[in-house]
Amino acid sequence: MDRTKREPASVTYLPETVEEKTTSHSKTYEVMEQLGNHLVDWFHLVGLFVVGVMIIWATIVEILLIFREAGPSVKDILLLFIYLELGAMVGIYFKTKRLPVRFLLYIAITALTRVLAIDIKEMADERMVAISLSILLLTLSVMLVRYATARFSDED
Question: 20 to 30 A Cα–Cα from 156, which one of 21, 28, 107, 113?
Answer without folding.
Answer: 107
